[in-house]
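in:
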């Protein structure tokens, strides 16, 4: 195997100031976590890039497969190494360009010469290597501006490093570099996408799910566990807090007018989420709400729901339409799980004509006849907590469910 390291470029991290080192250290820690199955990894960090040493073919294959899902990486390249002998450099260049032999494309040679004692100047290296590649690859032509392939050569103190692929990374910020929030994970299409987008901005997540047996089944809960596990592939563990919600939900149905059931249900969910958020030390609550998508997501409804808390409510999908959300869900691999036909508690007791413009004072008045505080405390106290990833258990997502 010719590949000896993977070069990682930071992208947005490069714009940071005095705290840049903290972001880089977080990215390095996340990479170690994501690749614990092929540990130990030798990782060397620099101000504008990172190097992961490759020991064997297995490490290379795993790194190439999973690195595109790690937030904080703008792009990466597999790197080959040879001695500083010109003949060795020419041979390695041909081996690297062999992967493009079936394509008609343009290329150029780009040289970075950090070892100034190397006898050839940058333009001489370009001429020697570029000419050798052209003579041996009739399918390739030179294009200095915006070529299809850049053969990049770095002359370092110890050896020659060479690469030709630039693979797009996930971008964003390293997970955990921007605090922790609590994701309200319903099991539908929207909330996993909302979680993904917050993770991309560096937010570490825990998740909360409201479970109402016997109105919701074990299958619906299993679906949410699968979604939580799917989100961990983007570089972090996730704890899922499952709240027993039946008692509160039935009481809401019995005590408030039918057309405000949905609003009060959402308000009680928000109160529970806020209490749990405080307990686990999260800074915000994340939802998958999109403005106007359903009755509970009009501006008036969101105002009524927000009224029960002063905690920041993060709604990354607020201006997305449904097709945009579905596109992202398909890209990140959660869509097929989300559309499995298992109900969640938001779909039960739904009135035929829910209020789309609820008045805060009226909703508060209807709720004032019921003491919800003790029920909320008990629901938080009696929750079940699951930790992900659970790779072995999640291998077959729906084994035994159907």
């Amino acid at each position: 195997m010719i590949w000896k390291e993977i070069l990682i470029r930071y992208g947005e991290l490069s714009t940071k100031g005095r705290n840049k080192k903290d972001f880089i250290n977080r990215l390095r820690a996340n990479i170690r976590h994501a690749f614990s199955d092929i540990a130990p990894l030798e990782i060397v960090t620099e101000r504008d890039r990172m190097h992961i040493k490759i020991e064997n073919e297995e490490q290379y294959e795993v790194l190439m497969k999973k690195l595109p899902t790690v937030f904080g990486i703008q792009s990466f390249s597999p790197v080959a190494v040879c001695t500083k002998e010109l003949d060795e450099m020419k041979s390695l260049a041909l081996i690297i360009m062999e992967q493009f032999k079936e394509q008609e494309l343009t290329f150029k040679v780009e040289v970075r010469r950090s070892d100034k004692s190397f006898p050839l100047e940058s333009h001489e290296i370009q001429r020697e290597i570029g000419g050798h590649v052209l003579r041996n690859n009739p399918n390739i032509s030179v294009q200095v501006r915006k070529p299809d392939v850049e053969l990049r050569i770095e002359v370092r103190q110890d050896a020659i490093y060479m690469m030709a692929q630039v693979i797009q990374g996930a971008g964003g910020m390293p997970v955990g570099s921007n605090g922790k929030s609590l994701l309200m994970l319903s099991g539908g299409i929207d909330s996993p996408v909302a979680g993904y987008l917050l993770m991309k901005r560096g937010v570490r997540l825990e998740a909360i799910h409201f479970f109402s047996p016997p109105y919701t089944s074990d299958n619906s809960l299993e679906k949410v566990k699968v979604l939580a596990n799917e989100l961990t592939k983007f570089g972090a563990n996730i704890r899922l807090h499952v709240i027993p919600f039946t008692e509160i939900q039935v009481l809401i149905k019995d005590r408030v007018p039918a057309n405000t059931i949905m609003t009060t249900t959402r308000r009680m969910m928000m109160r529970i989420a806020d209490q749990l958020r405080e307990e686990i030390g999260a800074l915000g609550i994340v939802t998958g709400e999109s403005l106007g998508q359903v009755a509970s997501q009009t501006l008036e409804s969101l105002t009524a729901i927000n009224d029960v808390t002063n905690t920041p409510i993060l709604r990354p999908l607020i201006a997305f339409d449904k097709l945009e959300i579905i596109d992202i869900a398909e890209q990140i691999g959660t869509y097929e799980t989300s559309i499995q036909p298992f109900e969640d508690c938001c779909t039960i007791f739904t009135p035929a004509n829910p209020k789309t413009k609820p008045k805060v004072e009226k909703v508060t008045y209807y709720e004032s006849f019921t003491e919800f505080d003790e029920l909320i405390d008990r629901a938080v106290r009696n929750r079940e907590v699951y930790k992900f990833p659970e790779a072995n258990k999640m291998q077959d997502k729906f084994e035994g469910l159907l």
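note: The CA atoms of residues 354 and 393 lie 39 Å apart.
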